[in-house]
Model the fold of this input.
Amino acid sequence: MSYFFNQNKNLNPQMGDLLISEPFLPDPNFERTVILLCEHTDDGSFGFILNKTSILKFNEVMEEVKDFNEVLYVGGPVQQDTLHFIHRGGELLEGGTEIINDLVWGGNFEQLMIMIETKQINADDFKFFLGYSGWSTGQLEDELKENSWIIHRGVTSQQIFELDPNKLWKEVLQNMGGKYKMFSNYPVDPRLN
Done:
């Protein structure tokens, strides 16, 4: 049962949107998550969870890089043996896809590894993900009709990189104001209310 009555009825998801899980979404993979939507086409959608850290560090997964111990995020439940990244400053790496102004998904991974080894990047401008969140054709639209997700438009790279991931879900809802501010204070377990 959803507590968000028809809030998404006129919104179509698009690249660069944030998908915010409704407070009582029953899927533990997406409990209180904020997902950056990196692609949305007729063939499906995918994105990365911005606020779910893993227990692994970059140099534990990419052992050839010794001094780069940045935290890895759980991008989603799909293919968690793959490594993905987003970053600020689109001119930094070749390739990649601009998601919003000053936010790029992917790029030349070999170039990135060289830049990490030679300390040419600012780690604060990157987020790394194990796996991703994916939806098949029409699946995300169905979940939006069921009000499993709240769409937030107008996100900035500053919000993605500078807000505390542990508080991101709550802060984004509070910044949206109105009823969303109220939703941000819902307890994880409604029986505790």
